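pls design
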């Protein structure tokens, strides 16, 4: 088999249609018998679920700010193994990253040596599209824009005008996707509605694939792909939280990074999934419980009434298991969660905190963390925050992390811990490079 090859699908700005373009192309290529793997740049839990539905395999996050370069290379190699092509969906605009500009899709393109196909929202544009694309193509010498897919094209005449303008600057147009209201995906406060909540995801993906097969030159698209670099020596990932880890997994707790769970499995840990929404307790033999983030604020009343789940959490803490919650999981470890209507719902009561979705404030950004245990990870970590809920009341407990933002500014303490029960609003991605 030939060496794995890849392409990055990026855009000048958020909202241009990157996700739809990737899903459409994956489906169309799959219909021709090609096996396509996928990845997503940056911190994102929702887009990868749509990718996984289209490819039939887990979509990995590749984050050039929060991940060590060796980990990125290793994850790219593992994800692309056995595939004819790996498609990487960018984040925000091509050159957008953390506050200092690092961690962008362009940085990932440079690290992996992959060309970029730019998805351009063509609404309200004509010949000016050439100036936009030329600027992106020439902005960085180490990031090659190899072609363009036009999105939301109004008509054949509109397409002709755009193609002529881009032809004048020598930029290949690989296709033009017409506006299609039936391919719109609804959103909520943390992004797109999750893939498993889509009313008819199979029909949506089939329609998207048919549109790509008609409107995109798939052979020219695939011909632009470049070989992925070989990974370096085996990179050490974050250690498992325990030997037998109960991991909450359902619509309320869906924000777990695949590379972490896969890394724990590779290290010999046994992963036992359970559903708090189905009132399932964590495995009674687990020596660790992981409550990922998600949307517990949308299911607070149901969670509060699920006695088997909550009692199972308390029993795990009583027997000395390490109980760790991130973001939504942290909220559920607290004493109460106040929903959007202002009603308080009792939670596990393992940490002295009450959180509120009624009083909202956006907390968003990359974070550098330091902890003093008992997490079995290096002291310095990298990750991010993304939540609207706030802390309504907080009691006495040790802080879990001290934190800085992406620019290195101190932002104080994050989270709480009591013995081997701990949590915070932080989503941990990897060890800091100097702490691995």
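designed seq:
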């Amino acid at each position: 088999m030939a060496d794995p090859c890849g392409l990055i699908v990026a855009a000048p700005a958020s909202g241009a249609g990157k996700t739809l373009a990737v899903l459409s192309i994956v489906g169309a290529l799959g219909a021709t018998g090609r096996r396509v793997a996928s990845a997503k740049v940056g911190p994102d839990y929702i887009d990868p679920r749509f990718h996984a539905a289209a490819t039939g395999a887990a979509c990995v996050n590749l984050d050039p700010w929060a991940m060590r370069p060796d980990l990125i290379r290793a994850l790219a190699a593992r994800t692309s193994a056995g595939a004819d092509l790996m498609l990487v969906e960018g984040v925000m605009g091509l050159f957008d990253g953390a506050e200092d500009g690092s961690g962008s899709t362009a940085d990932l393109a440079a690290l992996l040596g992959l060309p970029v196909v730019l998805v351009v929202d063509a609404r309200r544009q004509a010949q000016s599209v050439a100036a936009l694309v030329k600027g992106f193509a020439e902005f960085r010498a180490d990031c090659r824009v190899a072609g363009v897919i036009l999105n939301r094209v109004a008509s054949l005449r509109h397409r002709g005008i755009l193609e002529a303008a881009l032809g004048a600057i020598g930029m290949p147009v690989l296709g033009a996707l017409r506006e299609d209201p039936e391919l719109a995906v609804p959103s909520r406060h943390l992004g797109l509605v999750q893939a498993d909540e889509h009313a008819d995801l199979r029909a949506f993906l089939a329609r998207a694939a048919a549109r790509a097969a008609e409107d995109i030159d798939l052979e020219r698209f695939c011909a632009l792909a470049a070989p992925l670099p070989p990974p370096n020596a085996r990179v050490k990932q974050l250690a498992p939280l325990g030997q037998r880890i109960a991991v909450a997994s359902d619509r309320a707790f869906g924000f777990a990074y695949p590379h972490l769970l896969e890394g724990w499995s590779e290290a010999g840990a046994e992963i036992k999934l359970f559903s708090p929404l189905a009132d399932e307790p964590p495995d009674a033999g687990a020596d660790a419980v992981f409550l990922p983030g998600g949307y517990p604020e949308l299911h607070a009343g149901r969670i509060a009434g699920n006695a088997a789940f909550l009692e199972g959490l308390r029993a795990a803490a009583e027997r000395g298991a390490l109980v760790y919650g991130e973001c939504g999981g942290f909220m559920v470890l607290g004493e109460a969660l106040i929903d959007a209507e202002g009603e308080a719902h009792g939670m596990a009561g393992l940490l002295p905190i009450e959180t509120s979705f009624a009083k909202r404030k956006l907390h968003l950004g990359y974070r550098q963390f330091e902890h003093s245990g008992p997490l079995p990870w290096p002291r310095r970590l990298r990750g991010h925050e993304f939540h609207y809920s706030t802390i309504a009341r907080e009691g006495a407990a040790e802080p879990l992390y001290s934190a800085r933002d992406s620019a290195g500014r101190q932002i104080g303490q994050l989270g709480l811990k009591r013995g081997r029960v701990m949590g915070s609003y932080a989503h941990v991605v990897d060890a800091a490079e100097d702490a691995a």
